[in-house]
C-alpha cells in the first residue's frame, strides 16, 4: 500500500534576501542626487523594519525603492505591512514596516475549509502557523496547490508550499 504524500502551506520569506534588498536600498540612497544630505536610516528588527528620514516625500521614495529591490530579489510585497508615517524628534519622520510571517489563524481555517470542500481525497490539518495537506495521490495534491495558487492572489499574505513528499 502506498504511503501518503504531503506538503505544507506556509507564509514566510527569505530573511537573507530581505537583508540584501535593504543593503541595496541603502547603497542606492547614498548614490542618488535627490538624497544628497538627507537622513535615511533603515533598521531591521526581528519582526519589522524601522525607517527614519527627513520628510514624508522621502519616506515615499524609500518605500518605492524597498518595493522595487524586494521584487528583484524574489520577495513578495505582501510581506510588508506599511505603517503610518509619524513625526519623530528633530524634524524627522519615522515609519514602522511590519514583516508578515506565518498564516493567521482565520486564513488557515479558510484554506483548510477550501481543501475539505473541493478536494475530498485530500486532508488538511492546521499546525501552528502552517497547514499540512496529505493525500494518497500526488496528482490530487498538485491540483490542491494549483487551486491555492489561484485563490492566493486574494489573500493578504504570500503562500509558499514546502516539504512536498
Task: Summarize the helices and strands and which ones pair or pack.
Layout: E1 5-10, H1 15-31, E2 40-44, E3 48-53, H2 56-72, E4 80-88, E5 92-99, H3 105-118, E6 123-127, E7 130-135, H4 138-152, E8 160-162
Antiparallel strand pairs: 1-7, 1-8, 2-3, 3-5, 4-5, 6-7
Explain what you see.
This protein is α+β, with helices and mostly antiparallel strands and 165 residues long. The chain is built from 4 helices and 8 strands. A 4-stranded antiparallel β-sheet has the order 6-7-1-8, covered by helices on one side. The longest helix has 17 residues, at 15-31. The two termini are 16 Å apart.
Radius of gyration: 20 Å
Strand content: 25-35%
Shape: elongated
How many individual β-strands? 8
Strand order of the largest sheet: 6-7-1-8
Structural class: alpha+beta
The biggest sheet, with number of strands, parallel, antiparallel or mixed sense and barrel status, is: 4 strands, antiparallel
End-to-end distance: 16 Å
Amino acid at each position: 500500500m502506498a504511503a501518503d504524500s504531503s506538503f505544507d502551506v506556509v507564509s514566510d520569506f527569505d530573511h537573507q534576501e530581505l537583508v540584501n534588498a535593504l543593503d541595496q536600498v541603502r547603497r542606492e540612497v547614498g548614490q542618488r542626487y535627490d538624497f544628497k544630505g538627507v537622513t535615511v536610516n533603515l533598521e531591521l528588527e526581528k519582526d519589522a523594519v524601522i525607517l527614519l528620514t527627513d520628510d514624508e516625500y522621502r519616506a515615499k521614495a524609500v518605500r518605492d525603492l524597498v518595493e522595487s529591490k524586494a521584487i528583484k530579489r524574489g520577495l513578495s510585497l505582501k510581506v510588508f505591512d506599511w505603517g503610518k508615517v509619524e513625526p519623530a524628534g528633530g524634524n524627522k519622520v519615522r515609519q514602522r514596516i511590519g514583516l508578515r510571517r506565518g498564516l493567521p489563524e482565520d486564513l488557515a481555517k479558510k484554506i483548510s475549509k477550501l481543501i475539505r470542500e473541493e478536494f475530498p481525497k485530500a486532508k488538511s490539518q492546521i499546525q501552528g502557523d502552517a497547514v499540512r495537506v496529505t493525500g494518497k495521490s500526488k496528482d490530487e495534491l498538485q491540483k490542491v496547490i494549483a487551486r491555492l495558487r489561484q485563490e492566493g492572489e486574494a489573500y493578504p499574505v504570500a503562500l509558499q508550499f514546502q516539504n512536498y513528499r
